[in-house]
Specification:
alpha+beta, SH3 type barrels, 5 strands, globular
Length: 81
């Protein structure tokens, strides 16, 4: 069985969408991500990335949110076509 490459929210290009599969990590960072409405099964759209790469701006459930790249690495996603 071939090992599947893990894709995080940080890997999704600007203008791309993805479905959240899992949130890894624990504690404050995990709670912050979930408090923003980013949960398993939700679709997220990457609107833009700041020039220096932080933050990543997303649209989640109709809301515009900003997420640090270090936090985006904790969100395992499946890219949508």
């Amino acid at each position: 069985m071939a090992e599947q490459e893990t894709i995080t929210l940080r890997d999704i290009p600007v203008g791309g969408s993805a479905k959240v599969l899992k949130i890894v990590g624990s504690g404050v960072v995990r709670r912050h991500i979930m408090d923003m409405g980013i949960t398993k099964g939700i679709e997220v759209y990457v609107r833009k990335v700041a020039p220096l790469g932080d933050p990543v701006e997303l649209t989640v459930r109709g809301y515009e949110l900003s997420l640090r790249k270090s936090e985006a690495e904790n969100v395992i996603v499946e890219p949508l076509q």
